[in-house]
Amino acid sequence: MGAKWERNFRGEVAWERVPPVSTGARRGEPRRHGSPSMREPRQNETLESSPMTRIDERVVDALRQRLGDVRRPDVVRAHEFRPETWRRWIGHCASASSVVDEFRMSDAIASSQVSRADLASLSAAVDESDTESVLRLFVATMIWGSGTSNGRGPRYTAAALDDERLLPSLVKSRHLILAGDPAGAYASFRSRGVGPAFFTKWFWAAGLDQDLDPMPLILDARVWASLAALEWSSRDAAGSNRRAKRYVAYLESMGRWVAAGLPGVATAEQLEQVMFRWAGGR
Question: What is the pTM of this model?
Fold first, then answer.
């Protein structure tokens, strides 16, 4: 392995080790998508899968060896949060504040929680003509993704809510995700306070009530750390430097690795959760 390290995204504390290209290794072809304005969303649209490469086989072998040491996926995926902290930052927005109140357990309990099922329910209720339903899912996703350990989450969410680009980005990216165009969604998202680690959480939440292939997955610093420990390069997998194509390469690779057979892991989402918990062993 080379010693080159690269910052993956602006503002994210995430690093990816870039391995040398092995002789004979095959690179995935860059994915091309039609213009989203030229077609209607197709719920079950599938990106053409690529065959397993030598790198895929090596990663699968490494995952099989490590899965015994990593806690299994939690189907509930419930994360705690502190309502009062969030209310201080986003109380000026009625739609956002209503989400905090909805999931607040009681005045006597300092923390509350948001689960995957809660996000799926909010996702199913989204109507793009109803901006409040879109914002409610976004705020719940930010709360879920921040938990109690990310003290910057409430501040970043407040900054996003004050950015006029946020709502158009949410609506457009959700439309593209449901149309089977995660690269388009990735390339289009623009808002203060929401970098790739969190807007990929939005993509995931937006697709929870759909049967999408590939399923949009979270790609944050902990997952990047696991991918680096597995010596997997998004550049090599995508055959491109473009972040959007590299995100699609990640989704496609996760799907191939699960399809190859991993003990206790049935879906790409479960594998993402395993990688999050492992965080490359750090």
Answer: 0.80
Residue 15: count other Cβ atoms within 10 Å of its Cβ.
15
The DSSP H or E segment spanning 138 is helix 131-146
CA dist 206 and 120 (Å) reads 8
Query: Over the range 137-166, which residues count as b (16 or more CB within 10 Å of their CB) and which as e?
Result: bbbbbbbbbbeeeeeebbbbbbbbbeeeeb
274 burial level (CB within 10 Å; 0-12, 13-18, 19+): buried
Range list of β-strands (E), the chain: 5-7, 15-17, 79-81, 112-114
Q: Pairing mode, if any, of strands 79-81 and 112-114?
A: antiparallel
Per-residue pLDDT of the chain (282 residues; tens, 9 = 90+): 333 333 333 333 333 333 333 333 333 333 333 333 333 333 343 445 578 899 999 999 999 988 876 666 666 789 999 999 999 999 999 999 999 999 986 555 556 899 999 999 999 999 988 999 999 999 999 999 998 876 899 999 999 999 999 999 999 999 999 999 999 999 999 999 999 999 999 999 999 989 898 899 999 999 999 999 999 999 999 999 999 999 999 999 999 999 999 998 999 999 999 999 999 887
Is it true that the peptide bond before 214 is cis, omega within 30 degrees of 0?
yes
Q: How far is 237 from 9, CA to CA, in rounded Å?
A: 17
Q: Under a CB-based contact definition with an 8 Å cutoff, are residues 7 and 14 in contact?
A: yes
